[in-house]
Structures are given as structure tokens and as C-alpha cells.
Design a protein that fits this description.
Radius of gyration: 20 Å
Number of strands: 10
Distance between the termini: 34 Å
CATH class of one domain: Alpha Beta
Structural class: alpha/beta
Low-confidence stretches: 1-19
Strand content: 15-25%
Largest sheet: 8 strands, mixed
Mean pLDDT: 90
Number of helices: 11
CATH topology of one domain: Rossmann fold
Helix content: 40-55%
Strand order of the largest sheet: 4-3-10-9-5-8-6-7
CATH architecture of one domain: 3-Layer(aba) Sandwich
Order of helices and strands: HEEEEHEHEHHHHEHHHEHEE
């Protein structure tokens, strides 16, 4: 019995290593200057924003748990003024999202038909469920993947062939795109590594289409307060989605959170400086969801 109680205390106290007297934390929070802060300090700032972007490593269990906690606490602060948006839901499925959140259809029908990510049930269903529980708007912000694929294969010109109905699910054309040599180089390296022969510039354009579309649907659905979940890439350095959102709705108060994994989380690594207003820093050996 005593050993069981000891194990429970170890878990509750944050993975304390009694044998060495060294505390083992599952995560640490840092501000933009690399100063370690408490959760309540971060939330005080986030609650004052018009839009909060929570960037993530898609398979980080700790980040997903904290995302849920942040969205829950933003709801506590803003109630029905809060709207939730997710990169993981595609714009042409908004009707199904509305039907599910509005309790018109069951979870099994929603999960079967909405082209959800493989880790939806473990990592995003709690956030969508929060919207359903409290009657909040949940917005599918991302471009339908088939249209991003069109751009990846044929550039922005391919989108001109779409019908007026199809164009309702993407940002207004033409997409205001500025070539990014660094991004194109990164995607070029990815293509080489994967053995694919896709034009890296078109891959960068496909990412821009995603960013523009997410920015567009945030702008269109922002009534008072908005929280958005997306991969780090789409909000790092306040670029990506935020570049387009600032064009569609200038003057907003925006804050960003970035999830990072480091071997040593006692301080924020130099390689991560400048990426966000706040950081969720998780050990690299922490369990991942896939």
C-alpha cells in the first residue's frame, strides 16, 4: 500500500526523482524573452487578445493537453464570445461541423464523413467537444486538401478552373503571394528526401493557399474573441496565417504560442528564439501520440 501511495505522490508532484533529488518536469513555459513563466501569467496575456494562435507539434501529447486547457480557460473568460478554429478541419465540411456541434448529428456520423485527421479522437475531439458542450462556434478554417494538391501540382493558375461554388472554400483569388526562398528551399529538401519530384515553389504556394484560407475564415468568423489551433509552421514568427489575417482584418491584437521539444528544457534554446510570444517546451523523450 505504501509503495502505491508513493508512486501516486510522484505522479502528482510532477515526476519528482526522489533518488537524485532532481525535479523532472513534463513541460516548462517561457515568454518571448526566454523567461520561464507560470501558466496564469501566460493566460492573463492571452485573455486580452482578439486572436490567439496555439501552434503545435502535431503528435505531442503534452501540447495537446495544454491546448485543451488553454481553450477551456479562454472559454471561462469569454463565454459565448469565444470562437474556436482548427487547421485540422476543412472549410467544405463546415456544414457537418455545425451539425455536430449543434447536436443534430451523432459523433460516429461526423467522424465517418468529415475527413478527420487520424489523431482526431485523441488530440482534437476534446476541443471540438468543448465547443459542442457550450454551444460555441467551431470553424473549419483549412482549405480542402484537394485544392491545395491542385496548387502543389499546377500552381495558383490551377485554381482558376474551379467553379464559383468551389471558390467559396478558399481565400479570395488571386492569392497575395510573395516568394520565400527559405521556404522553397526547405520544401525542396523535403521533396528530395522523399524521392518526389514536385516543384518546391508550388509546394510553398500550396502552403500559402492554406495560410490565406485559414486567415480568411478567421477574419470572416471573428466576432469578438477567437482561438485557433494549427501547426507551428503556420504561425511561427507571426507569419503564415497571421500575414494574411492582418490584410483581411488589420489592427487586431494577436498573440502566438509555439510548442517546441528540446533535450534540455531548463531554458529556451537559441534555435527557438523569436518564433512566438509564448512557448510550451517539452522534453524530446516525452511520449508522442503517433
Amino acid at each position: 500500500m505504501r509503495s502505491c501511495l508513493t508512486i501516486l505522490l510522484v505522479m502528482l508532484l510532477g515526476f519528482t526523482n526522489y533518488s537524485k533529488g532532481q525535479e523532472k518536469k513534463a513541460y516548462r513555459l517561457f515568454d518571448a524573452k526566454g523567461k520561464e513563466i507560470e501558466y496564469k501569467e501566460m493566460m492573463k496575456v492571452l485573455k486580452a487578445q482578439d486572436v490567439v494562435f496555439i501552434g503545435e507539434v502535431h503528435n505531442c501529447a503534452i501540447a495537446h493537453w495544454l491546448e485543451y486547457e488553454m481553450v477551456k480557460d479562454l472559454y471561462t473568460a469569454h463565454k459565448d464570445k469565444l470562437t474556436i478554429g482548427l487547421e485540422m478541419l476543412e472549410a467544405d465540411n463546415q456544414l457537418m461541423v455545425d451539425e455536430y456541434v449543434g447536436r443534430l448529428i451523432s459523433s460516429d456520423r461526423f467522424e465517418e464523413e468529415a475527413r478527420l485527421w487520424p489523431n482526431y479522437l485523441t488530440d482534437y475531439a476534446p476541443v471540438v467537444g468543448l465547443g459542442r458542450e457550450h454551444g460555441l462556434r467551431v470553424i473549419a478554417t483549412n482549405v480542402p486538401r484537394r485544392y491545395a494538391n491542385m496548387v502543389k501540382n499546377g500552381g495558383f493558375e490551377a485554381l482558376e478552373k474551379l467553379s464559383a461554388e468551389a471558390k467559396k472554400y478558399i481565400a479570395p483569388l488571386p492569392i497575395d503571394y510573395e516568394p520565400d526562398e527559405e521556404a522553397a528551399g526547405m520544401f525542396g529538401l523535403m521533396m528530395m528526401t522523399s524521392g518526389k519530384h514536385t516543384d518546391p515553389e508550388n509546394v510553398a504556394k500550396a502552403q500559402a493557399l492554406k495560410d490565406a484560407t485559414m486567415g480568411w475564415f478567421i477574419a470572416q468568423n471573428l466576432k469578438s474573441k477567437f482561438v485557433h489551433l494549427n501547426g507551428n509552421y503556420h504561425s511561427d514568427f507571426k507569419k503564415g496565417i497571421i500575414t494574411y489575417l492582418n490584410k483581411y482584418r488589420p489592427g487586431l491584437k494577436i498573440a502566438t504560442v509555439c510548442s517546441v521539444r528540446q533535450d534540455d528544457i531548463k531554458k529556451l534554446g537559441e534555435e527557438n528564439e523569436g518564433r512566438a510570444d509564448f512557448y510550451i517546451c517539452v522534453p524530446t523523450d516525452m511520449t508522442m501520440t503517433y
